[in-house]
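Weekend entry, working from home. Most of the wet-lab plans are on hold until the incubator is repaired, so I used the time to fold the two sequences that have been sitting in the queue since the last round of cloning. Logging both here for the record. First:
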Amino acid sequence: MKNVLIIEDDKEISDLLGIHLKDIQCIVNQEYNGIKGLNAAKTVSYDLIILDIMLPGMDGFDVCRELRKAEIKTPVLMLTSKSDEVDKVIGLELGADDYLTKPFGIREFIARVKAIFRRVESFKPDTANEKDLQFRDLVIESSAHRVLINNKRIDLTPKEFDLLYLMASNPGHVYSREDLLNIIWGYEHMGYEHTVNSHINRLRKKIETDASNPRFILTSWGSGYMFNDQII
């Protein structure tokens, strides 16, 4: 059974989602305030967090930001009554895993939930094949999800780490923006390529000495990005 936290201030919506989550064998906890929801997420280990954006106490963006700062990697499905593209991008860049705009159908909601569960299962590490990576002064510790440069820890968000580890595991392989969306975010459709660009830009600022002249993450113009296969 999956353990799911719903942080949604509309009790009717929260109860409805809870009923259908229980139908697919989920244990459901409900919070109606952003601060209380954040505390619940920090206290109990969940398999999924359903997070509304417009919340009393603390909005969903701040809740998601604080979760990722605390290195809580629980998947987050964000809900909002807004349809603004900017909100979607902000949510994804803060580390949300998926996004639904109200009103939405229950079938679509359950399909998104099941898709997140499948992605989590497919990305569970194979400890037999898990390995740390080192490229000169850059060390990527897979099991600890930690990155060091010159023995100094670099704070990365979960998505930034996933992007770096994926590309560093396959130096020289060019990943298109669509490839990275599908692998890291699980998106099967176009439209969020700028989210990939934003993550790459922030990642470069954190790990490169000169982000405008990167050593590690290179741009393959017209194609996408790759990890420098000339660095050993």
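Second, folded right after the first finished:
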Amino acid sequence: MLISNGGSSGFERGALKFGPRKAWEMAAIARLSGGAMTGTAFYIDPNERPASDGGNELAGLDLRWDDPAGGYAGMTYVNVLESGSPYIQAAPGGIGAPTVLPGAREGTNAINLYARTNPFDGALANWMFSADYAYEWNDEIDLRAWGGRVQAGYTFAGLPWSPMLTYTYQTFSGDDPDTPELERFDPLYYDGSPSTWATGSKSSMVSINSNVQAHGLALRLQPTKQDTVTLRYSHIRANELRSPIQFGQATRVDTTGGTANVVSGVTDAHLADDVFLEYSRIINRNTFLTAGVSVSLPGDGIETTVAGDVPNWTGGFVNVVFNF
């Protein structure tokens, strides 16, 4: 949820959609296991883009229990040792441009609790449940933020192609413009692929997991052991109105009610509805093919940020991966 993707893609590096860079620039990991328990201590330095390198260094501990039947539960603690990365705070009352807090990430702490069930027998056979929750704090800047996700999935094992239907709800706090504290969640280094922590498909390209929530449905079919087809739908909303969704890019003059005010974020919570159809093929043990098409339908929150009509955002891709 917080510590996964150590490499930045996009912009001067290209490949934003595929996100091929995952490795950290520097990492030190110590692990101790005994029975079903594993403890991990880590120090990580992300491989950030040169144009936006925040000098981030983090350390933490993870304690995880793995059930031989397949389930697990654990807790991760993370501390940001050094950082020049800024945080963004909503203007008081949501009126005015957001405030940039330079270097505010340094000193941020986070605790992440996570769990996933074993495969069930009896009345709950073929069901899967998982949950994640994270809490962040930084006393230097009065940060108190939270985020989390719950999932429930059911596999129709008796039907052809073994359909699996999964419902996901995930939410990440935004900064409340009516309080002096900072509540904007910092997603740190999450994996933003559609099968993990992306909020939507196309929408995840322009927002991060902060001040956003989503209801998601995914239907996965497996015609063969090598072929997988997945249809995903996401209904995406903002948690806080007049508060930055990403980094404040939508700051603008709003004339709602006949008065001109500078605002950021949105004045209606509905951001978008995303649909994504994905096909994956295992060609051989070293080669994988993935293709997909997607569309994002703007909600009232997006449509009211600009004058005129907002078009649907469509896209497609084909990706071949060779492992060697």
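Plan for Monday: verify the second prediction. The longest helix spans residues 300-303.
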